[in-house]
Amino acid sequence: MTWRFALVIQPAGVDDDRRDFSATFRTIDPAEPALSVGELSTQRGDGIFESIGVVDGHPQEVAAHLDRLAHSAEICDLPAPNLEQWRQAVARAAEHGERRGEGVIKLILSRGVEHGPAPTAWVTASAAADFTVPRTQGIRVVTLDRGYASDVPDRAPWLLLGAKTLSYAVNMAAIREAKARGADDAIFVTSDGYVLEAPTASLILKFGDRFTTPAPTGGILRGTTQQSLFDHLREEGYETAEELIPVDLLARADAAWLVSSVRLAAPVTAIDDTRIELDSGLTQAFNRYLLTPRD
Amino acid sequence: MTWRFALVIQPAGVDDDRRDFSATFRTIDPAEPALSVGELSTQRGDGIFESIGVVDGHPQEVAAHLDRLAHSAEICDLPAPNLEQWRQAVARAAEHGERRGEGVIKLILSRGVEHGPAPTAWVTASAAADFTVPRTQGIRVVTLDRGYASDVPDRAPWLLLGAKTLSYAVNMAAIREAKARGADDAIFVTSDGYVLEAPTASLILKFGDRFTTPAPTGGILRGTTQQSLFDHLREEGYETAEELIPVDLLARADAAWLVSSVRLAAPVTAIDDTRIELDSGLTQAFNRYLLTPRD
């Protein structure tokens, strides 16, 4: 699959209720220069994003991603996105993709060009990498201190915790640190000993027949894939919970996964020095579900 | 002054000792598209930067800024920049500027295009805004919790504290928060009550004839303007210190300034609800010194 597509969007106001936003889209060559050096996304990481998985031409959980985009915009004092416009942009990107296989559509809303009048926005789409190995053989993770105590997000909203901002240098550094330690990925923990999330994924733990994830308080991004999977698990009769999880509990999990929109469910086989059992049956069921078309 | 200039750089290795790096520079129109949407600077805030003040055609403290660029690159696992190449790029940008007035030259080193082979780099230059009002009438600041305890930077290097990364969304949000509170700027403090720095400036406090700034430990960026000013103050016979400063001490300062490369010395007239005396004589002397050509 060699799908590559990009679209620049002229952001519309939330009150713009036209039926067809095509006139606000401009298709570009994703390899060609498209952004000026004055872009605040590039100078300051000042903007927000979403990554939407695509399966056989179907963009997954679009509404949940757009809701989160709006939530991030609110936290970052960005103009509220016109969600119908973004929905049409996602549909356009998906139409230009392959009918078979997996892909990823990224939405970016930047504060715009420095001293400029308006935000800039664009959508990119491409084939996904092959995640067969992490999905079947699992990943090793290390815990890394995020540096914040668990009460910080609520009292310091300017830290933008809970927004999916373009300022992801720390998230990328955490993954490099994990790899330097011989692992594949990281789990952030608070400085007072509670589990948060992975730099680009949510954590799900299984204890007996109960599935749990760290409660999406201010410091944790609401995981669209985790929420979809928990809805499915409840339908299947399992118990699910969102709660405060002390770091000590990680080593006692019967199974663990990092879940995200594109890699989907990656079973965790080790957390720091503790081996975790890989539950192949459940992992296959998770990814089978996550690879069905979902809205 | 209408100076606007931009240069894309093909980053050279540190071992490249050619005399003339002109062949690695490409002048571009700063308003035209120059970066692809695949840029990791824009997708992840994944890169580093420096802002160099320019006075009457002379770029200030270039060596100190380049040293800090190299330091940031090391913290972020970016390839070490060839400092002679960057020095020549700064000189080229300064040559294209106005001979009179103030400007700013920005250096950006990005991790490059996603899945690409090499970092991307560019330099922009433009006239500075008019900072007469903050320099003469002063600024009101509020203290904002940075969310980290003072021992965090040393034990969590993946938080990239001390590197000047492109992930500045929180710094920008802090300035918005300050303005929402009716102030002009912010001073970050640790969650355990020590003073750090402003989102884009260093803090200098005066107690009697002694000048002090928060010690540049892992959590604080070494301030090139603050260091230059402290060198000057010591030559003038003043005592200077870099130390741990409890938040309580702020209200007892005889005078205070936020200093940075382009706005230079902005006297602080209020910290939260405490009025601070504006020392006009010293402030004028500071800015007179900072506006002389410095290397």
From TrEMBL, chains A, B:
Q: Which domain of life is it from?
A: Bacteria
| Keyword line | Lyase
Is the Disulfide bond keyword given for this protein? no
Q: Which Pfam families match?
A: Aminotran_4
A single GO molecular-function term is: lyase activity
Asked if the Swiss-Prot or TrEMBL record annotates the protein with the keyword Membrane, the reply is: no
The record, for SUPFAM superfamilies, names: D-aminoacid aminotransferase-like PLP-dependent enzymes
Which PANTHER family does the UniProt record give? Answer: AMINO-ACID AMINOTRANSFERASE, AMINODEOXYCHORISMATE LYASE
Which protein family is named in the record?
Belongs to the class-IV pyridoxal-phosphate-dependent aminotransferase family.
Annotated protein name in UniProt: Aminodeoxychorismate lyase
